[in-house]
Amino acid sequence: MIDLHSHILPGVDDGAPDINVALDMARMAVADGIRVMACTPHFMPGMYDNTAKDIRNRVSQFQSILKNEGIALNLVVGCDGHIRPDFLNRLRSDEILRLNDSRYVLFEPPHNIAPQRLDDLMFNILVAGYVPILTHPERLKWIEQNFDLVERMFQQGVWMQITAGSLTGRFGARPQYWAQKMLSQGMVHILATDAHNTKSRPPILSAAYEQAVREVGLDEARNLVLERPVSILDDIPAAQAPAIAIVVKPKAQPRSRLGKLFFGKP
Q1: What domains does the chain contain, in order, with CATH numbers?
Q2: pLDDT over 70 for what percent of the chain?
Q3: DSSP character for 259?
Q4: What is d(CA 209, CA 109) in angstroms, rounded to the nearest whole number?
Q5: Region class of 136: left (phi > 0), else alpha (psi between -120 and 50), else beta
Q6: CA distance linking residue 52 with residue 56, whole number of Å
Q7: CB-hemisphere CA count at 13 Å for 252?
Q8: Measured in Å, how far apart are the chain's first and last C-alpha atoms?
């Protein structure tokens, strides 16, 4: 499995606070079957003013530590980009890191209020040749009132990434509902951990993968955690990545019909 959204780098944001926690997260990820993990610290003006150069250096250093510790986890660069007026310009100048230097970039919108003209910004990013991946839309507080905005961005070509813990219920019933709804409607491209630590936000994908198998079938679940992530890391155009397969579950038979079929009762 490939995890394209993790705050595993120590000491850069609200993720792993130190190297010991980061190493524990890496070991946990490997034990869960994750083989590649994207280091995606927040790029948030005024709060997490990370630089691309610093993140690249930290990823390289941490990869060397993992090798010395015998932890078989490959790291790639990325970031969790937050909204800013110069987002596209900074993306073009490589100041905002794309996933493994591909055309794909994680974008985290504000959680509490839907920003005006968000779909226009996403469209401009798409027209410029990049593919924005909206992180954890199912956890946004404004999704109920603005689900049409999420649908509109999806139709534009914005990729959607839901959090593993949302699908399994770790974040509560509301995010789980929206994660399942988006999954059942064929609106999810990527499943990722958004890991921050080893306890409340662990780097665990397997439980959500198993849930996805039940929801959308084995092939599409594999697309969520492996095939599309590989397409991203290899910088394959979005149109050539595996298409979303919508699995229509058979409707349950009415109770009276089942009774008649199996028990000879009306």
Answers
A1: 2-263 (3.20.20.140)
A2: 92
A3: H
A4: 25
A5: left
A6: 6
A7: 4
A8: 49
31 closest CA partner among 67, 76, 71, 69: 71
Q: Distance between CA atoms of 178 and 181, rounded to whole angstroms?
A: 5
Number of Cβ within 10 Å of residue 47's Cβ equals: 11
Q: Estimate the share of the chain in helix, then strand, then coil, as percent rounded to the nearest 5.
A: 45, 15, 40
Contact 43, 79 (CB under 8 A): yes
> pTM for the full model?
0.91
Please give the C-alpha separations between residue 211 and each of 29, 183, 201, in angstroms, as whole numbers.
Answer: 18, 11, 18
Residue 229 CA to its chain's centroid (Å): 10
Cβ contact 167:212 at 8 Å: yes
For residue 4, what are its two tokens? Answer: 């394209």
d(CA 109, CA 90): 17
| 11-45 pLDDT per residue, tens | 999 999 999 999 999 999 999 999 999 999 998 87
CB atoms within 10 A of CB 147: 16
In angstroms, rounded to a whole number, what is the distance separating the alpha carbons of residues 188 and 152?
14
pLDDT value at residue 253? 46
